[in-house]
Amino acid sequence: MRFRLKSRTVLGLAAFTLTAASYAQWSNPAQDVPAYHPSAPLKVSALPPILSGSKLTGENFQYPWQVHVYQQVAKVGNVVYQLPCNCRCDRALGHTSLRSCFEGLHGTECSTCAKEGFYAYQQTRLGKTPAQIRAGIARLDYEKIDLDKQ
């Protein structure tokens, strides 16, 4: 009995080690970029709308910046479609880009999404391309944004 228990333990440990090693081989945190689209959508009308108008009221919109970020993101919808979201909502919620955060209420409750949304709008107004904005997001430039001053 003792031998059988040890062999199961050894086999289980070996299987765990092989599994962990195989994941480590294929996942490089430095290359782990959240989901985004590399180019603008072909048909904007086919995408779910960014929340706007009367949908920007209620208990989820308690602070002025929450309404303001949705309004700004709506102006650069094609750009935010091409940007990743560093809160990793692609894993937790199945989002496909930063734009997804503003098609529902997630952008109201996540400061990462909100700051990235403001950042995308500001950088677009400065003439930056989506690729340049992605690079800024990768550098975490959006973290300098103070939501209460937007």
Characterization of the model:
This protein is mainly α and 150 residues long. The chain folds into two domains: 32 residues; 117 residues, no CATH class. Helix content is 49%, strand content 0%. It has seven helices and no strands. α2 packs across α6. The protein is globular and about 35 Å long. 29% of the residues are buried. About 16% of the residues have low confidence.
State the end-to-end CA separation: 68 Å
* Helical segment count: 7
Mean pLDDT: 79
Q: Which regions contain 5 or more consecutive residues with pLDDT less than 50?
A: 7-30
Q: Structural class from helices and strands?
A: mainly alpha
| Radius of gyration (Å) | 21 Å
What's this, in brief?
This protein is mostly helical and 150 residues long. It has seven helices and no strands.
Spell out the blueprint of helices and strands.
Layout lengths: L1 H25 L37 H12 L1 H4 L8 H4 L13 H4 L1 H15 L4 H9 L12
Helix pairs in contact: 2-6
Tag the structure with descriptive keywords.
150 residues; 7 helices; 2 domains; mainly alpha
